[in-house]
Design goal:
The complex is a heterodimer.
Chain A: H1 2-29
Chain B: H1 3-8, H2 18-48, H3 50-56, H4 63-75, H5 80-115, H6 119-139, H7 145-172, H8 175-183, H9 193-215, H10 221-230, H11 241-245, H12 264-300
Helix pairs in contact in B: 2-3, 2-4, 4-5, 5-6, 7-9, 7-12
Classes of the chains: A mainly alpha, B mainly alpha.
Chain lengths: ~35, ~300
Amino acid sequence: VTTSAWILLITTWSIVGGFSVYLVARVLRTPPRDED
Amino acid sequence: MGSIHCYAAYLRERDDIALNATTAGSVNEFVEVILGSSVLIPIATAYLGLAAVQSATAGGSGFGLAFLTLPTLFNQWGWFGPIAGAMWFGLLFFAGITSSLAMGQPVVAFLKDEFAARQSVAALVFGTCTLVLGMMCVILYPGGTFDEFDFWTGTFSLIIFAFAEVIIFGWIFGIERGWAEINKGADLRLPGFFKYVIKYVTPTFIGAVLLAALIKPSVGWGAAFHALTTTGSWPFDPGSVIGKLIHVGTDWSWFDVKSGQVTRIFVEDLTRIVLITVFALIAALVRKAWRGRVITHEVQAGGDVKL
C-alpha cells in the first residue's frame, strides 16, 4: 500500500506540478504586448 | 462567478486569454488541491487519526479542516502553537480579504459606471451591505444562517451559474464565435477537442451534477426509482436541494409549540427570503442600469438605434 501510495503521489505531483511550471515558464517567456 | 465578466471588460481585444487562464487554473489547482492536501492530510492524520480526518472532510468541505482540525493540532505544539495559529489565520485572512476585494470591485465598478457614484460612495455602499449581511451570519449563526448563505451562494449558485454560462457560451453565443474569441491574440494554442468539451462534455457533466443535487434520494438510486414506480413518491434526501427547500424529515413549523420561540426552520426560511430579496434587488438595479443605457444610446444615435 505504501509503495503504491508513493507512486500515486509522485505521479500526481509530477503531472500537475510539471504542467503548472511549464505554463508559468511560458507566461514569463512571453514578451509584453505593445500598448497601442 | 460573476466577477470574471467584469474583469473581462478590462481586457483589450487582442489580449491573451488562453495561456493566462490555463496557467491561473492549473497553478491554483496544484497549490490548493495537491500541495494543500499533501501537507494537511498527513499532518492531520498523524495527530488525530484517520477516522477523525475522514469525518472532518466528509461532504467534501475543507471548512472543518481549516477552522477546527488545525487549531486542534496547534494546541499540541506547545509554545509554537500560538505563533503557528497567528501565522495560519493571518494567511487565511489575507486569502479572504484579497478575494473579497476582487469580488467587491465588480459591484463598485457597477455603481460607478451605471449610477455615476463616486469611488468612496460606491465603496461605502458595498461595505455597508456586506457588513449588514455578514452580521446577520454572525448573529444568527446558531440558527444556521451561515450554512444557508454558504450553501445557496457558494455551492448551489456556483453550479447554476456555471451551467448557465457554459450554455450561453457554447450554444447561444456559439462555440465557433467563442473559439475564435479564445484564440484571438492567444499565446497558447488550445487543442481543438476542447471545443467539443465546452460544447458537449461540460454542460452534460454540470447538468448531471445539478440534476443529482436537486433530486438526490435518501436511499439508493435504484431503490428510489423503484419507490417512484410502486408508490408514486420520490424519497428526497434532506441534503438534496428540493429536500432542503421543503425541509424533509423535520416538522415544518416556524415556532416551537411549547416555548413559543422561533425554530431553526424559521431562521433558515428567513435567510432564504433575505437571499432572494438581495438577488431581486441586484437584478432590479441591473435592469434599471440597462434601461438607462438604452435611452442613452438612443439619444446619442438620434433615436434610430435600439439595443
